[in-house]
Amino acid sequence: MKKKISFAAVGDSLIVSRISKTDTDMLALRTILSENDIVLTNLEGSLHEYEPTIYPSQVSGGDWVTLPPQTLEDLNWLGFNLYSLPNNHSFDWMCGGILKTMENLKKHQAVYAGIGSNLSEACAPAYYSTPGGRVALIAFTTSFEPWQKAGAQRKDAVGRPGPFTVSHKTVHHITKEEMNTLKAISQKTSLPFHAHKDSACSFAGMEFQIGEAGTKTYLDENDQALIKSCIAHASRQADIVLISCHTHEGDPKDPEKNTDFQEELAHFCIDCGAHAYIAHGPHLLRGIEWYKKAPIFYSLGNFFYQCELIERQPEEFYHKFRDFDSHATAADVFDYRIQSGGILGETNPKYFQSVIAKFQLSNQEVTEVKLIPVTLQFHAHRSTKGTPKPATPKESSAILTHMADLCAPYGTSLRLFPTYATTTPPEAP
């Protein structure tokens, strides 16, 4: 019988403030996390100290997120030993931020995947050896601007630093009469119209097809080939392959639900040989699916979400939501956003509910997932808000009941206990 490998995975760690290593809640989290062979999180932001060689991008993933490099010491102390880096904030501080982040990760001997000085580095698996076997991590993001992607190295041109990105396309399905209307609009305006074939066209930068009304998203075929190649390589070099995906996209009417390509992407990775798929990004929990006996976590939400403690922001930040004068501080903008209803979700209590997902792999199969509820202290003062601690029994009940509702559409049932829940692969039909 092969040895087992135990895993703990959480969502995004946007950690700005150092933690207390004598705090009872932190010690409790450390106990939960550090008893596992592999402990994974996504670092949401750049690791730097605003060095003179690092410049902010004109456009950010929301705020311009900087994580003090010293917070890696705290995360390592909590038990984290594997880090996913690509997300919509990876390029907030442009190429300099990417390179300095890599420098600080290596300085703290952190094992990470998903960013690099070129595309080859960004999509390379990271490896971590445990007593039960070698684990590979492949990490990418689906949320990015096109110019933020890591670029391929050539013999005649240097590659571009950046994150490993996975693209998708959006297609709007309309009637033939509606497509003729788009063509007529183009003829009367400067909006471009291009017919690809009788049943498809592009108009004003959007794709349309004749069919049943609705909008669908599809995984990019070129990125499919790259992912398949990465997983095939990792499968030869490691016993277990994990996928980490940062993805903000979702159902426009319900952010707790996926859009089409996210499920297509998760299934594709498992079909290619991945043993577990761990997503994060929308700041909310989403459901869990068992696919070919492999767990798919469509979002583990936030783990640290200390965005309101960021101290330094570029000029564009002070004009993004309302014009502030030169004397304003970042805290002034955060106050305004909260007073305006939580422009970026600061007043949404679901952003501050999360779970730690724990599971074991034996003979390359997961037989059970355990979910441990975590609260990020929504009602606390800003100095504490966004910092995780184990949920109380009352909070646990609310979080786990909600998770059960999110899992139900995937045919995944949760067995609820006072302070945790479990789920197992459904029996084969």
Query: Mind describing the biggest β-sheet?
Result: 10 strands, mixed
Content of β-strand:
25-35%
The dominant shape is: globular
- Average pLDDT works out at 96
- The CA-CA distance between the termini, in Å, is 27 Å
Cα gyration radius (Å): 22 Å
> In oligomeric terms, what are we looking at?
single chain
Low-confidence stretches: none
**Number of DSSP-assigned strands:** 25
Question: Based on helices, strands and strand pairing, what is the structural class?
Answer: alpha/beta
Count every helix, treating DSSP H or I runs of 4 or more residues as helices: 10
How helix-rich are the residues, as a percent range? Answer: 25-40%
Question: How is this structure best described in words?
Answer:
By secondary structure, this protein is α/β, with parallel strands linked by helices. 25% of the residues lie in helices and 28% in strands. It contains ten helices and 25 strands.
Outline of this structure?
The chain is of the alpha/beta class and 429 residues long. The chain has 10 helices and 25 strands. It is globular, with a radius of gyration of 22 Å.
Features:
single chain, 429 residues, ten-stranded mixed β-sheet, six-stranded mixed β-sheet
What is the topology?
Blueprint: E1 5-14, H1 24-34, E2 38-43, E3 46-47, E4 66-67, H2 71-78, E5 82-84, H3 94-107, E6 112-113, E7 115-116, H4 119-122, E8 126-130, E9 133-141, E10 162-163, E11 168-174, H5 176-188, E12 193-197, E13 200-203, E14 206-210, E15 214-219, H6 221-237, E16 240-246, H7 260-271, E17 276-280, E18 288-291, E19 294-297, E20 302-305, H8 317-320, H9 330-339, E21 353-362, E22 365-375, E23 389-390, H10 393-407, E24 415-416, E25 421-423
Parallel strand pairs: 1-2, 1-20, 2-5, 3-4, 5-6, 9-16, 11-14, 16-17, 17-19
Antiparallel strand pairs: 1-21, 7-10, 8-9, 11-15, 12-13, 13-14, 18-19, 21-22, 22-23, 22-25, 24-25
